[in-house]
């Protein structure tokens, strides 16, 4: 939302550097303070002495502005990248059809976003649009060929261009020519606006585009150029919030075939991420922004990483999910009601409710008090989701009867007792999802810590955290409990005995296994700073029957080597009756070591197990039935 982000960030860097210099010269630092650039060395770090990241949502093919003096973003693009790896991309058609059959909600994603942006411009941000239209009207009066445009026609045309803008915002500064990317985005918005408005003169859209592109008119005075520049920069402050409110806070609550994909920085047209894309994006990240944050949960995410990891599993089970939601709909028929002649909940809201339960159901059956708390949380979430969607109720025009009916449906559906056939059926279905979701979560921790970037941990997610959007994710973190759990694991960052690991795996509900994976991975990383800040990122080839179920890469530098391996799509591997997937399932599947690897023995940083590489011609293979002998994840380094 900044007027001139590039200048602001330069001022911020200089101001911080001046403050550090003063502190050192005045002796306030208590000793020598090394310049941050000494620690944060890497590609493109010149002129970025202080560590700064920006909360910037990048579009599908959008890159962070290369001239900004920052070290990257707060990590939403990584969040969607790593979560997408655990979604079965091949199930997209099935899931969209399942969702459309159950809800009757058939949507074209670009059209939905366009309509939601128009809705936001008509409601929440209408005043901001009106102010800009007034400025545009004054600019149009300055030229003979544009002064006939009326205020209403300019209002309509500008709203259309904003609604068709393909990214959050452009970054024109008014100094020099408009950048190539900005020109492309402005042109795309103009073309789309013309297509959607065949009865509107194209000259209106062309005029607005000429202003945004800062095109100079012959004989134009400096004051008029300044007016165009100011308008272009002010418009950029509006397109961002329009996109955020329309997509993240409206469209994501109206259309959700697989709700784990409706995340900040996500796109409704995406359905998972192929492993090849994960590797290519990581390699690009290493080259361009090696110190960008790698987030998986934040203050603003719609669902925590553990909730998304569970819902990811549904993508592997389209037939089972389809049968379950229709079965549950029948079992919950008496829990609904009618409001003004309409059944409540409508199918779309009911579908969201079931996905929410899948993602948040407690790992252990809750007692009466905990159950009441859980029901209240789900009720609060459903009401917020309905208000954001603004289809049956809203923040500014609440429908109290509809909201009351939703709360009663949630309460009735989740009532405890043997007579509640829905809840018994749901819990049986949920057991498979819970176990596979745990494996997804643990694998994500490993990928986050080992991938290029700075791993970011939202407090409380060191163990299982099944939080929803705020305020649910702002609940108090029990630090004393986390400290006690960490103390039970023994020496910080040390490898546990196999018997102790088996105990954590056998009883994973308390989250100690996630805390162990997190602490051990971070300890390993902190002891190899050069490897993870500067080490090359090399995707590894995987061969064998389960090759598609593996993510594998290598980090390599002068300091050493780390081989990173995780499983995925666990529901397709059989019945995970226990958290540990049977290692025999991985028999015949191997990861090919880099050609320069000469070592034959590798040690896993989590289990302490040693794995012998196998010769295959002139190449070395790591047999995954040995690597995944305790859990389907590992970070290996050559054994001394």
Written overview of the protein:
About 1% of the residues have low confidence. The protein has 640 residues and is α+β, with helices and mostly antiparallel strands. The longest helix is centred in the C-terminal third of the chain and has 30 residues. It is built from 22 helices and 14 strands. It starts with a helix and ends with a strand. A hairpin with a 2-residue loop joins strand 7 and strand 8.
The largest pleated sheet is described as: 6 strands, antiparallel
Low-confidence segments, given as residue ranges, are: 36-44
Report the helical percentage.
Answer: 40-55%
Overall morphology: globular
User: Could you give the distance between the termini?
Assistant: 52 Å
Count of helical stretches: 22
Describe the secondary structure blueprint for this structure:
Elements: H1 5-25, H2 36-39, H3 76-84, H4 92-103, H5 109-122, H6 126-140, H7 151-163, H8 180-196, H9 202-212, H10 222-248, H11 275-288, E1 293-294, H12 305-314, H13 318-331, E2 337-339, E3 342-344, H14 347-360, H15 368-389, H16 400-413, H17 421-450, E4 454-455, H18 479-488, H19 498-506, H20 512-526, H21 529-534, E5 536-539, E6 542-543, E7 550-557, E8 560-567, E9 590-592, E10 601-604, E11 610-612, E12 614-616, E13 619-623, H22 624-627, E14 633-638
Parallel strand pairs: 1-4
Antiparallel strand pairs: 2-3, 5-7, 6-9, 7-8, 8-14, 9-13, 10-11, 10-14, 12-13
Helix pairs in contact: 4-13, 5-7, 5-10, 6-7, 6-10, 7-8, 8-9, 12-14, 12-17, 13-17, 15-16, 17-20
């Amino acid at each position: 939302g900044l007027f001139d982000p590039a200048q602001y960030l330069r001022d911020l860097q200089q101001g911080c550097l001046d403050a550090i210099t003063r502190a050192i010269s005045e002796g306030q630092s208590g000793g020598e303070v090394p310049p941050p650039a000494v620690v944060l060395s890497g590609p493109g770090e010149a002129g970025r002495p202080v560590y700064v990241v920006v909360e910037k949502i990048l579009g599908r093919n959008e890159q962070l502005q290369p001239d900004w003096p920052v070290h990257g973003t707060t990590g939403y693009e990584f969040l969607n990248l790593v979560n997408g790896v655990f979604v079965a991309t091949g199930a997209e058609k099935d899931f969209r059809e399942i969702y459309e059959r159950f809800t009757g909600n058939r949507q074209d994603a670009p059209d939905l976003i366009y309509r939601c942006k128009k809705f936001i411009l008509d409601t929440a941000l209408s005043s901001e649009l009106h102010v800009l239209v007034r400025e545009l009207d004054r600019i149009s009066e300055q030229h003979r060929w544009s002064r006939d445009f009326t205020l209403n026609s300019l209002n309509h045309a500008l709203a259309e261009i904003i609604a068709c803008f393909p990214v959050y915002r452009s970054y024109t500064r008014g100094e020099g020519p408009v950048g190539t990317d900005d020109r492309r985005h402005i042109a795309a918005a103009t073309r789309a606006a013309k297509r959607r408005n065949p009865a509107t003169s194209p000259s209106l859209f062309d005029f607005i585009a000429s202003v945004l592109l800062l095109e100079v008119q012959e004989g134009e005075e400096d004051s008029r150029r300044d007016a165009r520049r100011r308008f272009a920069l002010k418009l950029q402050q509006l397109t961002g919030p329009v996109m955020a409110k329309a997509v993240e806070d409206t469209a994501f609550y109206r259309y959700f075939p697989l709700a784990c994909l409706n995340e900040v920085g996500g796109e409704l047209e995406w359905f998972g991420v192929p492993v090849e894309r994960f590797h290519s994006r990581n390699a690009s990240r290493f080259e361009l922004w090696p110190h960008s944050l790698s987030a998986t949960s934040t203050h603003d995410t719609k669902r925590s990483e553990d909730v998304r990891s569970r819902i990811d599993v549904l993508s592997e089970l389209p037939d089972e999910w389809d049968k379950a939601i229709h079965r549950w709909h029948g079992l919950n028929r008496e829990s609904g009601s009618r409001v003004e002649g309409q059944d409540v909940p409508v199918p779309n809201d009911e579908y969201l409710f079931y996905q929410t339960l899948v993602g948040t159901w407690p790992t252990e059956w809750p007692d009466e008090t905990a159950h009441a708390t859980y029901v209240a949380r789900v009720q609060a979430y459903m009401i917020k989701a309905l208000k954001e969607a603004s289809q049956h109720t809203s923040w500014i025009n609440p429908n109290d009867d509809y909201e009351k009916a939703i709360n009663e449906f949630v309460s009735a559906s989740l009532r405890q007792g043997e007579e509640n056939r829905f809840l018994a059926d749901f819990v049986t279905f949920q057991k498979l999802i819970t176990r596979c979701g745990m494996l997804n979560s643990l694998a994500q921790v490993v990928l986050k810590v080992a991938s290029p970037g700075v791993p970011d941990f939202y407090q409380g997610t060191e163990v299982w955290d099944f939080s929803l959007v705020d305020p649910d994710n702002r609940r108090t973190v029990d630090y004393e409990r986390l400290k006690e759990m960490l103390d039970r694991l023994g020496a910080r960052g040390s490898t546990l005995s196999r018997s102790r690991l088996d105990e954590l795996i056998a009883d994973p509900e308390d989250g100690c296994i996630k805390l162990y994976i997190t602490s051990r991975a971070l300890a390993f990383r902190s002891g190899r700073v050069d490897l993870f800040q500067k080490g090359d990122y090399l995707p590894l080839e995987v061969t064998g029957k389960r090759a598609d179920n593996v993510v594998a890469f290598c980090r390599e530098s002068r300091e050493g080597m780390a081989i990173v391996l995780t499983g995925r799509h666990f529901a397709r591997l059989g019945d995970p009756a226990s958290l540990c997937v049977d290692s025999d399932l991985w028999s015949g599947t191997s990861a090919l070591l880099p050609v320069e690897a000469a070592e034959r023995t590798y040690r896993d940083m989590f289990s302490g197990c040693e794995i012998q590489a196998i010769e295959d011609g002139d190449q070395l293979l790591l047999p995954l039935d040995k690597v995944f002998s305790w859990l389907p994840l590992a970070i290996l380094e050559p054994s001394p």
